[in-house]
Amino acid sequence: MTAASPRVRAAVVGAGGIATVAHLPTLKAHEDRVEVVAIADVDADRLGAVAEEWAIPGRYSDVDTMLAAERPDLLVLCTPPVAHKDGVIKGLKAGAWVWCEKPPVLTLAEYDEVAAHEGENGPFASYVFQHRFGSGAQQLKQQVRDHTLGRPLVAVCHTLWYRTHGYYEVPWRGRWATEGGGPAMGHGIHQMDLLFEILGDWTEVTAVADALDRDVETEDVSLATVRFANGAMASVVNSVLSPREVSYLRFDFQDATVEVEHLYGYDNSSWTWTPAPHRAEDGSAAGWTPQENVPSSHKQQLSELLDAMAAGVRPRASGDDGRRVLEFIAALYESSETGRTVRRAEMKPEGTYYTGMHDPSFVYGSAENTAASKETVQ
C-alpha cells in the first residue's frame, strides 16, 4: 500500500477492555493506513464513552446495521468467544476482511463453517496470534528453516498465569458453551501457536487436565506431551493457578538452546540463544540473535494484515495456518477426557471433539472421572 492509497475503513465490534487496551491503540498507531469509521456495542453508555474517547463517528447497537451503513473494508472483532463465529461470518458476507480476537471460534466445526464464507482471493478471516510476529520469533523460524541450529529435539511451552476466583464471576468465563474451554483455549493458545509456528506440524498428543481450584466447568490446568512431524518432542503446561506468572518457551536444538520468557509480550531482550559447547568454541554462534528489535504485538500483526489486504493475499494466522492450534486444543481435550493418545492423522471432521471441545459426560473436578482417566492411562 503506497502513501497515496486510500486508507482502509475499519469498524470495531465490542467496546470492552480488549478493544480499548489493544485494538483501538493499534488502529490508532496505523492511522496513516487505517481510518476507524464505526464501533458497535450493546452497552450504550460504554459505546458512547469509548467512541468519544477515540473520536469514532459511527456508533451502533448492532453489527448488522453497522455493516449495512458503513460497508467497512476491515471488521475488528473484540467480543467474547461465543460471538466470534456469527460476527466473522457477518463481516465476510458483507465483503469485509475480518480480524478476530482469540480463540478464533468455539469449535473446529465453527472454524470450517467460517472458512466456507471466505473468497478465493478474499475477503479472509484472520485471528489474533501476535506472538508470531516479533523479531525474535521470526529470527528463530528462519534459523529452523535454514537448519543453522541443527535438528530440533526438545521443547517446553509453559503458560503459567494466575486468574482469581473473581475473574470467573464474569458469566461467560469458564463455561464450555461461551468460552469453549479453560486456559488451554483462552490463555495458553498464544504460546502454543508460537510453538507450532517454530516447530511446525504436531502429530500426536497425550494430555491430562482438571479443575483443581477454580469454580469452572472447564479445566483450570492442563499438561501435555506432544510429538512433531520433524521428530521433536515437547511438554506443554497451561495454568491459571500460578501466582508467579510467566510465559516461557524453550527450544533445544542439536547446536543451541533458544528461550523466550515474558508475560503478555516480548521484545529481543526476552530471548536468549545459548550455543552447545561445540558451537561456542568454533565461534559460529555469532549472528544468531536478531538485529532488528520488533516486539510481539497487535501492531505488528496488523501491519502484516494490512499488507496482505493491499496485495489481495491470505494473511498469516488464517485458514489452515490459523486452524492448527485449535485442532491441537481439541485433541488435548479429547486425550485428557478419554485417557488416550490422540493422533492428528486420525482426527476426522465429525464427532464430539469436532462439533465441540468437550464430552458433556466428563465432569472436570470430579474424583470419579479423574480416577477413571488414570486407570485408562495405566
Automatic annotation (TrEMBL):
Q: Which UniProt keywords apply?
A: NAD
The keyword NAD is annotated on this UniProt entry: yes
State which residue ranges cross the membrane.
Answer: none
Looking at the record, the residues that make up the GFO/IDH/MocA-like oxidoreductase domain are 138-245
Q: What is the annotated signal peptide range for this record?
A: none
Q: Which residues form the Gfo/Idh/MocA-like oxidoreductase N-terminal domain?
A: 9-122
Listed SUPFAM superfamilies: Glyceraldehyde-3-phosphate dehydrogenase-like, C-terminal domain, NAD(P)-binding Rossmann-fold domains
What's the protein here called? Gfo/Idh/MocA family oxidoreductase
